[in-house]
Amino acid sequence: MGGAYLLGKRRPMLSGLGIQITIDWEGLSLQSQSLERLQSFRQRWQVPITHFMNPAYFTHPLLQGRAKEIRFRDVIVPGDQWGLHLHGTKHFVDAAGVSFQSSPSFSGRGDGNPGFDRGHEVMLHTYDDRGLHRLLAFALRIFREQGFPRPLAFRAGGWMMNPQQFSVLEALGFQIDSSAAPAGSLDGSCWERDQLQRLLSILWPQVTEFSQPYTTEGSSVLEVPNNLGAIDYWTDEGVLLHAKRALAVAHTQPHLIVITGHQETAIEHLDKLDRFLELVLSQTDVAVEFLTSGESQKYTVTEESSVRLSS
């Protein structure tokens, strides 16, 4: 087993493995079966989850009525954390009063989303600082209007956040970004060798599945990398490999892993996360803690040096 990870001076903390489970709410659908699957997962594991909520449900012409009927707090329960997730979907951009950008897309095939979902695969950092500020401010307004907690963590759709725009996050009071993801997390998936994988290697060139939270010079925003990517793109073999590698690191030093699922595809893919947790928790020689995005700071690397795992 090989790969690079970051080892450095850390804040005093418990040893072992930290697991942060995050769910991205894409703003595309709100099917009862998916919501029920999320609830059953939460009931089984009884662990905190960070929910990155896309407020585009409330601007979607076909979903806004459904969104206002749903009891989101039946799924996002006390102990969980609310974060903000955002794509450049046209109906949301229009509602925010920002000039819609139809390209470029993070897909090599272009934005293939028809009708009301048009713009979902447009790179969010296509918008300049002023446009991005207006989009985020409008999202926060929807959070307030719906009575949702004020989010302090952000994740861009498709992981397409430009670190050069962290100042926009800071100006709006965000403390955490979790948009960084390793390009390698898409190996074996439908996105392998696609535009998205190439863009991740450009935006987040140093991020690997072993990367830990870090800050960048000139910014107070804490980057908490989504270092294990999205379970939608895990292969069956990958479930086992991710578990083995995470445990191997946690045997020698404190290690945080950040895993993403999606509300819209919970039925199809949450079973992979079930298997992953079963594998990790079956090991009794590694201490495991579950935490939200807001509790990630204790894993922050303050002095980085590159180390390789032995084969």
Brief overview:
Helix content is 29%, strand content 16%.
What does this protein look like?
The protein has 8 helices and 11 strands. The chain has 311 residues and is α/β, with parallel strands linked by helices. It has a single domain, classed as Glycoside hydrolase/deacetylase (TIM Barrel, Alpha-Beta Barrel), CATH 3.20.20.370. Strands 2, 3, 4, 5, 6, 7, 8, 9 and 10 form a 9-stranded mixed β-sheet that branches. The protein has a two-stranded antiparallel ribbon with strand order 1-11. Helix 2 (64-69) links the parallel strand 3 (49-53) and strand 4 (81-86). Helix 1 runs parallel beside helix 8 and helix 7 (236-250) packs parallel to helix 8. Mean pLDDT is 91; it is low at 1-14 and 303-311.
Helix and strand content put the structural class at alpha/beta
3D shape: globular
Average pLDDT reading: 91
Total of helices: 8
Number of strands: 11
C-alpha termini separation? 5 Å
What is the CATH architecture annotation? Alpha-Beta Barrel
Biggest sheet layout? 9 strands, mixed
Tally of distinct domains: 1
Taking all Cα atoms into account, the compactness measure Rg is: 18 Å
State the helicity in percent bands. 25-40%
How much of the sequence lies in strands comes to 15-25%
Question: According to CATH, what is the topology?
Answer: TIM Barrel
Helix/strand order: EEHEHEHHEHEHEEHEHEE
